[in-house]
Amino acid sequence: MLSPEELRSRAGEFGWFHKIDLGQGVITPGQSTGPYLGPDLMPDMSGKSVLDIGAWDGYYSFQAERLGASRVTALDHYVWGVDLAARQAYWNECAARGELPDHGRDATDFWQPELPGKRPFEFAKEILGSKVEPMVADFATADLSSVGHFDVVLYLGVLYHMKEPLTCLERLRSVTDEVAVIETQAVAIDGLESQNLMQFFGGEFIGDYGNWFVPTMDALRQLALAAGFKRVEPVVSPPAAPPRSLVTNLRRALGRGPAIGPTTHPAFTYYRAVVHAFV
Ligand SMILES: C[S@@+](CC[C@H](N)C(=O)[O-])C[C@H]1O[C@@H](n2cnc3c(N)ncnc32)[C@H](O)[C@@H]1O
Question: Is any atom of ligand 1 closer than 6 Å to the C-beta of 54?
Answer without folding.
Answer: yes
